[in-house]
Specification:
This protein has three domains: 285 residues, no CATH class; 113 residues, no CATH class; 58 residues, Arc Repressor Mutant, subunit A, CATH 1.10.10.410. The protein is built from 16 helices and 17 strands. Strand 9 and strand 10 form a beta hairpin. Helix content is 40%, strand content 19%. Helix 3 runs antiparallel to helix 4, helix 8 packs across helix 10 and helix 13 packs across helix 15. The strands form four sheets. Strands 1, 2, 6, 7, 8, 11, 12, 13, 14 and 15 form a ten-stranded mixed β-sheet that branches. A three-stranded antiparallel β-sheet has the order 5-4-16, with no helix packed on it. With 480 residues, the chain is an alpha+beta fold. Bound molecules: adenosine-5'-diphosphate and magnesium ion. Magnesium ion binds next to loops.
Length: 480
């Protein structure tokens, strides 16, 4: 691939979190019985008129603001005409020359560092229905529940150059839409979908090569894989001197291939014209400002704060900003404790495992900042062993957030006597003095445990019981 440069542009559709559709009052719920959430408006019956959903416009503007796009003040909707069984009206209401958000950027983090990916536009449009091909032997079934559901389409410039960048870009978009609450980001259910446009060109060339578009990639893993195999396939065609044709392709995850579904249609084929049933609409500065005021602090800002002010590693900060409820929880507890690093470890380690095991979410954790501090201080002072804190006390506190951690610890008889405290201090000393070995251990070199035990034996002048030391070491190393 060193002879060629890959160029990638993504089109991402995000379903907006509104209760009703973009131009009608039908519900948008995902799991409804087929064809329950429909109306004559959605089916395009003669005489019906669409009506705009203001909430959808607000949510689209939110996304534009966080991407630093320019919000268009004068807008109109356009008809995109095409025939397809899942499009009962024969046209889709979209935006053409006046996308609601113009330009903007998404910041990505990859192994090469941070970089901004430029956006072309974000526009509003309605979704189509769903054709179901695999539930009947002879017929295609049609479910119009999804028809008319509001979407934004986020279109990037041809600005990415690897599968890793494309995956980082989509990951960040998913994080952002969830963070600001405009879309649930669920790719399996189709709330977030991605089409990838890929071309290659000889390294150093400025002119773009002919692109292919791979449709409907429904996970970040699939996007990454599809881009990888497309780059490979196009490079081989180029090597052989074969002409690349602009076409739309589909990805087959099981076979690990893409295949052509049609040669590409151009914009002219859609015969766009302004939607005659909807008036053009203008947005005032004060409306846009009022939406801006509702926006929370963004994950990048929290990331910067956690690394710069709290001294967390990039990895920890990345983990904490995966989820807004987690980040909020961390932030509120971090201001109440000096053990900021230990707090991060506790949340992204044992607390996260607890949530997974209990099928709970971060929103459901209700332990006060003071209680986190009490718990972390008890561990830091050696009153409580890390293993007991994590394995026994923590789950009890998470299940009963009103309880007092100190009382609970003494009730459960976890308070360590002075001897145990002394041993734990030796163990901690050894672990802190050998960060490289700790890393190797975590990467799988479990045999190193003997080395750690030996070191504790040395500094304790043989006073520490090797069995107790081994247990403490294992608990500490596996949770840290
Ligand atoms: P359409 O809607 O017909 O697919 P657009 O003009 O909206 O076409 O472009 C779709 C996407 O394709 C954009 O993200 C753009 O960056 C990307 N793109 C356009 N040309 C190329 C190219 N030569 N190589 C890679 N991506 C491209
Ligand atoms: Mg396209």
């Amino acid at each position: 691939m060193h002879k060629y440069e890959a160029v990638i542009g993504l089109e991402v559709h995000a379903q907006l979190n509104t209760a009703t559709k973009l131009f009608s009052s039908d519900a948008t719920s995902f799991d409804a019985t087929p064809n329950k959430n429909i109306s004559p408006i959605i089916l395009g019956h003669p005489g019906t008129l669409p009506r705009m959903n203001k909430k959808a416009i607000e949510l689209a503007i939110k996304m534009g603001l966080v991407c630093e796009s320019t919000i268009s003040t004068h807008n109109y909707f356009a008809r995109k005409n095409y025939f397809y069984p899942d499009l009962p009206k024969g046209y889709q209401i979209s935006q053409h020359t006046t996308p609601i958000c113009v330009g903007g950027k998404i910041r990505i983090r990859t192994s090469a560092g941070e970089r901004d990916i430029q956006l072309t536009r974000i526009h509003l449009e309605e979704d189509a229905g769903k054709s179901i091909h695999d539930q009947d032997e002879t017929c295609t079934l049609l479910d119009y529940n999804r028809a008319g559901v509001p979407l934004i389409e986020i279109v990037s410039e041809p600005d990415m150059h690897s599968a890793e960048e494309a995956a980082a870009y989509l990951t960040h978009i998913r994080k952002l839409v969830r963070w600001i609450g405009i879309c649930d980001g669920n790719m399996e259910e189709g709330s977030l979908r991605c089409d990838a446009n890929i071309s290659i060109r000889p390294l150093g060339d400025k002119k773009l090569g002919t692109r292919v578009e791979v449709k409907n990639l429904n996970s970040i893993k699939h996007l990454k894989h599809a881009v990888e195999i497309e780059i490979e396939r196009l490079s081989k065609l180029y090597d052989k001197g074969e002409k690349i044709i602009q076409e739309t392709r589909s990805y087959d995850a099981d076979a690990g291939i893409t295949f052509s579904i049609r040669t590409k249609e151009d914009a002219e084929d859609y015969r766009y014209f302004p939607e005659p049933d909807l008036a053009p609409f203008s947005l005032t500065e004060s409306f846009i400002t009022s939406i801006k005021k509702q926006l929370p602090a963004l994950p990048d800002l929290c990331f910067a704060k956690y690394t710069a002010e709290y001294g967390l590693s990039q990895y920890d900060a990345e983990q904490l900003t995966e989820d807004r409820a987690l980040s909020d929880l961390y932030e509120s507890a971090a201001v109440a404790t000096i053990h900021k690093k230990q707090l991060a470890n506790m949340l992204i380690g044992p607390v996260k495992s607890f949530l997974n095991a209990e099928s709970k979410t971060w929103e459901q954790i209700d332990v006060s900042p003071e209680k986190w501090n009490t718990l972390l201080t008890m561990i830091a002072e050696g009153k409580l062993s890390f293993s007991q804190a994590v394995q026994k006390l923590l789950p009890s506190i998470l299940l009963d957030p009103s309880a007092d951690p100190e009382q609970m610890a003494s009730k459960m008889d976890f308070i360590q006597d002075a001897d145990a405290r002394q041993v734990e201090n030796w163990v901690k000393q050894v672990v802190e003095a050998m960060p490289d070995k700790v890393n190797e251990y975590k990467k799988g070199k479990k045999g190193l445990i003997g080395l750690f035990v030996g070191e504790v034996k040395k500094i304790s002048k043989g006073k520490a019981d090797p069995k107790v030391v081994t247990q403490m070491l294992e608990a500490l190393l596996n949770e840290k």
